[in-house]
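Listing S7. Sequence submitted for prediction.
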Amino acid sequence: MKTLAFLSAAGLVLLCSSCDKSPDTLVAGGYDEAAMDAAIARARAEVDSFLTVLASGQGEDFAVKAPIEDRGQTEHFWLTDIVYRDGEFLGVIGNDPGVVRNVKAGQKWTIKKQEISDWLYIRDGKMFGNYTLRPLLGTMPKDQAEKLRAILAEP
């Protein structure tokens, strides 16, 4: 969980640096949307490899990212403390919402495997997955982006 806390503090808040008081779950643009769509597609395509590592326990800080919709708006949340059963992930919403009002931090949430927008885990100090971070690195201050790139298993 230390790594997820670092991401929240060091990276995710900065993702909205161009926004006026936007919550850390929102990114107002400035990134390549096609690259983001490709990152989500890659995460979904590789989710079975994530499940293999999750089942083996050969990692830590396992999380999946869930797009949550409410009133025509979508916000993406990392779900932590996840378990996988019958094609679904059950986890805990890791932060307060910014636009959606149908969830809150600490609430349990279930999402189908094919609906996630990303996944991640940490092994040997390196972060695997988190493909949706990569299109956002160019929107961050250089020092913050470099810190995050340094922990990515595959920059």
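Caption to Listing S7: primary sequence and predicted structure tokens for the chain studied. Confidence is low (pLDDT under 50) at residues 8-23. Residues 33-45 form the longest helix (13 residues).
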